[in-house]
What we know:
By secondary structure, the protein is mainly α. It has helices at residues 4-16, 20-33, 38-50, 54-67, 72-84, 88-101, 106-118, 122-135, 140-152, 156-169, 174-186, 190-203, 208-215, 225-234, 241-257, 261-279, 283-299, 328-336, 349-361, 388-403, 423-429, 442-451, 463-483, 493-498, 500-510, 557-563, and strands spanning 316-322, 341-343, 372-373, 376-377, 411-414, 434-439, 488-492.
Amino acid sequence: PDYAEAHNNLGNIFKELGQLDAAVKSYEKVIAISPDYPEAHYNLGNTLRQLGQLETAIKSYEKVIAIKPDYADVHFNLGDTLRELGQLDEAVKCYEKVISIKADSADAHNNLGVSLKILGQLDEAVKCYEKAISIEVDFVEAHNNLAVALQQLGQHDKAIKCYKTALAIKPDYDEAHNNLGLAYQQLGQINDSINQYEKAIASNPDYSDAYYNLSYLKKYSANDPQITKMKTLLSESKLSLLDRINLCFALAKVNENLDNQDELFKYLHEANRLHKQELNYSFDKKQKFIKIIKEIFNKNPPNIEQYLSSEPSTFKPIFIVGMPRSGSTLVEQIMSSHHAVHGAGELYNLTKIIGRIVSDNLTQGSDIASTSIGDKKINFSNAYSIPEKAFLSIREQYLDVLSNLNVPESVITDKYPMNFLYIGFILMAFPEAKIVHMKRDARAICWSIYSNYLRGLDFGNDFEDLAGFYGLYTDLMDFWHQLFPGKIYDMCYEDLTTNQEEETRKLLQYCELDWDENCLSFHKNKRTVATASAFQVRQKIYQGSSENWKKHESYLQPLIKALKTY
Length: 566
């Protein structure tokens, strides 16, 4: 009974048989007999991880490291576990440790790249994937990951080449087919995109991401076997939450195209209910968050001219802001058709930069509000003092981001709509910035948000939440207008679609750009578009899009009623 190795071997047998609880008991028995048995702690950690007990698994891995510091596999699995828990900085250290022990670990280079990519360090991630491939030339996941990073960096030709390399190695690689489909979709190559999504589904008939992506492009007949397949998948009890969300949004889109209103709203309500469950949204936190932003600027009356002494920049940033689905993609497509303008798409960097700066410079108090700016949890009890150096730091870090785009144009648009939250920070850091605020019929905006799967958008999954956030948005925009008179250009989406040339001329004049005829034929622009509007901006202006909600008016009464409050 006290033979440690036998208990360890028995644990391995139980683990192989899928009897994980029995395996745990065997490994614990080993440790009771021989507390410094590294393999038992390692095996216990792996089994606990399989059981989803990640925090406990970490403790087991740490015990191994205390006994045997250079055990590369343990550092690797610890890195993976930390990454699953979102502790990315710690995961990075683990993969770096593996590489210091075992420099030719292609897996460690690849997973280091994955963590760095999530942290937004795309250039560094690319180097890691390339290193992994140099060690293991047929490392198919690394080719796919490299392509995704290159795609996010806007290097679409290189990305497509990498996806094709991955598919040459593994022709039935469902994820690479799906990602290649997205790359083609962003370039407006719709038939190629559909073809890749179909191949992804042929490779993996249960692949919910591909069904979701395909549902936005394909015209279904009522008896399409894919519809039956999606419904069958949804009925499976073991389906993950993300798969359910994908399939419900896909079936909603299918039924919208087939004009089955009852089915459309059945799936749409369920999709949004599940998405809200995933994101754990709180209106109160959002309200507090915006209140704090106002307090920061009420306590620090802005004088944007005082920062003109900062280093003049070669870049002239234009921020296109507003509610999501308010027309920012269309305006960027028009502006990026101008010979002097580069459309950078949605750059999330500013949110992250401001999050770091604000959290670094807030005076700590005792009452910690559970909310965040960017990716940082922040203590908001004394959030009233931001030193000047913070705004200069925002400027420097964001200019670095623009510089890393490596584009010849000096005028660069950032169309991340949620930057409306940070207009005060933007104007303090960039007195020369242009702010284009998109306005659109509230019912059109809210219907478009509710009917599309906008991953991670936390306020869009419930009519009350949507209307409530819309109220917070209009209130904050009024605040910015009062604080920075004449600095924000309001652009009405409906006016743009009915008077394209006149509104475009006014927009360019505000942005201090000369007239360029290409702005009128924006739909011929070949740049990539990485948002839900990728297909629409390849078409000429469609004047009726703000009326689409009217087709569903009877189902949208609770939303319309809630919006009337604002």
